[in-house]
Amino acid sequence: MEIQEKYKILIVDDIPKNIELAANILSTKNYNITFAISGQAALKKVKLIDFDLILLDVMMPEMDGFEVCEKLKSDPSTQNIPVIFLTAKTETENVVKGFELGAVDYVTKPFSTDELLARVNTHVGIKSKLEEKERLETQLAEAIAGKYNNPEKSGGEGFGDGEEFVKSLKDELEKKKMELDNVALFYDLRGQMDKLIVDRSPVARMEIKQIKDMISNLFIDKSNREFQRALKLRSPKLTFDDLRLCSYLKQRFLNVEIAEFLETSPEAIYTRKSRLRQKLDLDKDQDISDFLSNFEF
Predict the structure, then answer these.
(1) Among 119, 137, 170, which residue terminates a domain?
(2) Does the residue 239 lie in any domain?
(3) What is the mean pLDDT of residues 27-32?
(4) CATH number (domain holding residue 79)
(5) Bigger pLDDT: 56 or 28?
(6) How far apart are CA 83 and CA 221, in angstroms?
(7) Could you tell me the residue range of the domain that residue 272 belongs to?
(8) What does the alpha-carbon distance between residue 78 and residue 81 come to, in Å, rounded to a whole number?
(9) What is the domain-level CATH number for residue 227?
């Protein structure tokens, strides 16, 4: 996905090398990067710049990431900025606490290029969908009020009569709502699963299995069926398993995550993605997740 709008991202970490690494990775997607080396500096910068997303280190001196997140979420002017925590692999309890404080996701350190880009692209995409939903709601309200009853008042875009335009807006808005509801439910379930991982009891393992099943079921709803049907029409060679994989890739899951849900190995997913690229007739350097996320249906 080539980012057309330069989304503004704040990286907060007390170690400059970590900031440099993250910035170099994100710069490949044309993000506008700002950094802060302390929690206090971060809180000052969010007052000056309207950030689209914050990458926040957990362990920092004086003011740690938890305190920074708590202050961000308690301030109406910053509470809606998505926060992704940067945490060490062994800090499972930190992940749980981060979700409780309102973080939308986390990336484990040392982070890989694929994981960092997947997480950031996902939440930038969610933000974009939310903005699109708000735009559609505004248009729908104006249309219902009669602004678009006359095609000339709609800027001459040729939407036909007002009723037809209102119906098209309602259909598009309903599709956006279903997508966002699924995303919100996924992250809620994922947060529950991360909390259960701390508890290694048999009961916790059973509950984790149930949550995985619920996540899998998100990919057979009406919106996803329409996505798969349109994709099948475009690429008739796609099998049922291919379409299922496409649904996960559309949401920018990592290979290791998809492998866990499909009960296979990350290496097997890598191989399947290579075959899928051929069936979709994509260029060698074209990202599959970018293509599927932007696929119109």
Answers:
(1) 119
(2) yes
(3) 86
(4) 3.40.50.2300
(5) 56
(6) 28
(7) 221-297
(8) 6
(9) 1.10.10
**Bigger pLDDT: 146 or 206?**
206
Quick one: tokens of 263? 């009960």
Is pTM beyond 0.70? Reply is no
pLDDT tens digits, 51-91: 999 999 999 998 999 999 999 999 999 998 999 999 876 56
**First-to-final CA distance of the chain:** 17
Res 1: pLDDT: 43
Question: What distances in angstroms separate CA 279 from CA 159, 262, 266, 290, one per listed residue?
Answer: 36, 20, 20, 16
- For the beta sheet containing 8-12, the strands, ordered from the edge strand earlier in sequence to the opposite edge, are 32-36, 8-12, 53-57, 83-88, 105-109
Greatest CA span in the chain, whole angstroms? 66
The burial class, CB within 10 Å (0-12 / 13-18 / 19+), for 26 is buried
In this structure, are residues 44 and 87 in contact, taking their beta carbons and an 8 Å threshold?
A: no
Domain count, the chain: 2
Cis peptide before 61 (omega within 30 of 0): no
Least confident of 93-107, 110-124, 131-145, 162-176: 162-176
Cβ atoms of 42 and 117 within 8 Å: the answer is no
DSSP H helical ranges for 62-201: 65-74, 92-101, 113-144, 162-198
**Of 86, 119, 152, which closes a domain?**
119
Q: What is the spatial distance between Cα 242 and Cα 22, in angstroms, rounded to a whole number?
A: 32
